[in-house]
Amino acid sequence: MSKSNNSLTSLALQKFKTNFWGVFSLGIIACIGVISVFAYLFAPDASKNANQMHLSIHSKSPGFEVEMLTIPSSIESHQGFLSKLFFGSENTDTEIPIQSYAVKDKMLTYVEYASDGLQGIEKQIGLDRFPNSDYKPFIENRSFVFGTDKYGRDYLSRILIGSRISFFIGFIAVFISLVVGLLMGSLAGYYGGKVDAMIMWVINVTWSIPTLLLVIAITLALGKGFWQVFIAVGLTMWVEVARVVRGQIISAKEMQYVTAARALGYTDYRIITKHILPNIFGPLIVISAANFAAAILIESGLSFLGIGAQPPMASWGAMIKDHYNYIILGKPYLALIPGICIMLLVMAFMLVGNALRDALDVKA
């Protein structure tokens, strides 16, 4: 039996490998996954939530460059390496975009950056504010690959860190939907009768409520926040899983191997978990891939409405909300870049789901 399972698994894997778009999409998902986990390692602005604001350089075009003066803070940071890697640096230094600078009489004189050809304010600071009075390491030419947002934050960094929410909400929401959906669907399909009628009533009532409206209600009940959105999206996606599991178990429980397991005196729990569920795992993989994409879209919609991840946390949906009016103000890329990222990730999950469906189709 184990040998047969291995051969079927290897056959499905070989069929999946022949699907170019499925493999390509899986590679995109893997790349986005690595970027989301180690976002602060790749982001030019490694501060927490990439929230370094420079209002004087707001809404600049991609490729914008400016000299940046960093004034070190006297506050010492005791943040550990892992905390910086996964949660960003607690940056207490002051960053100032400048147009020019000069040194005279142990004073650093600089002119703050001003756009539209205006002359910035001239200010001075003592060289003793810098370690060993060496100011040169604290003045650098900084490039913004995706430009800056309306608050002057590095847009590339916000995009990279915003991938975390869109990527991880898929995993957490699908996990919650699988736990609830497997439990409800297994009970309804295996026992039938009144249990099935009661669970199907709950499923139909939940199914009749618009998904976005239900998510908004759960989010408002739990409060606005990061984890609340994950839980809310997961609790609205279990219905599809439960319906698929119920239908699969209704057909599978009449099979001979289930009858043999009952004759051997196995418990219902063992029959469901050890015998039935492993044989209906294929459709669950396919629906989970589709639910990944749906969860990303729902979260983006919630963030656009302002009840998703709250500022200053970066989110692709919230970034579209903040900059959608820039589409008619001559800078559409501020809304299009996160929109393209959402489209790319959702399409990748859908193509992987289609490839898995074809690979696990035993009739083919």
UniProtKB/TrEMBL annotation:
Record keywords, A-Z: Cell membrane, Membrane, Transmembrane, Transmembrane helix, Transport
Localization annotation: Cell membrane
UniProt cross-references to Gene3D superfamilies, sorted A to Z: MetI-like
Pfam families per record: BPD_transp_1
Domain ABC transmembrane type-1: 163-353
Topology of this chain in the membrane: Multi-pass membrane protein
Transmembrane segments: 20-43, 167-192, 198-222, 280-298, 333-356
Entry keyword Phosphoprotein: no
Keyword Transmembrane (UniProt): yes
Signal peptide (from-to): none
PROSITE patterns: ABC_TM1, PROKAR_LIPOPROTEIN
Primary location: membrane
Family according to the record: Belongs to the binding-protein-dependent transport system permease family.
Name of protein: ABC transporter permease
Biological source species: Winogradskyella marincola
